Amino acid sequence: MTGFLIAVIVVLLAIIIGLLVARRRRHDPTDLLGSALAARDAEHARSTRKAAGPPAAEGDALVHQVRLLMNQRMKIPAVKLWREATGVSLSDAVKAVELIAAGGTPTTTGQPVHPVLGPDLMANARDLKQQGRPIEAIKLVRQHTGMGLREAKDVVDAL
């Protein structure tokens, strides 16, 4: 009977020690896959960017943040960060992030990219909107500028 109690106590201690070791590994700050530090830094960068506006060295900091996220194989957060900081479409953000991951530097760092709308295009889109055909106006803007749906809709709504 005493041997049985000792065996139960040893098994319980082994389980407790195993749980403690597993918990410690999960909270290891050097773990790159589950790093809370990278997420915190990215969130801090986003909140700082929204509050203060883009300073001169913002582009370099943004590229650095995206590189850090890509080094940690966190492509989706990198694309989200790039989109929030620059205001570009999803496809442009993916292209920029992939360029950064390959070692390049995109030309659109820190600044929203909106193709120039010519006066003829603006007049045509405004006419379509006034005729009650906003969808056609959005299609026209997208076709001639390469803008995303949201950006083109915002342009047409502003006319």
Automatic annotation (TrEMBL):
Keyword Membrane: yes
Spans through the membrane: 6-22
Keywords linked to the UniProt accession: Membrane, Transmembrane, Transmembrane helix
Record-level Gene Ontology MF annotations: structural constituent of ribosome
A GO BP annotation: translation
Family annotation (InterPro entries): Ribosomal_bL12_C/ClpS-like
Name of the molecule in the record: Ribosomal protein L7/L12 C-terminal domain-containing protein
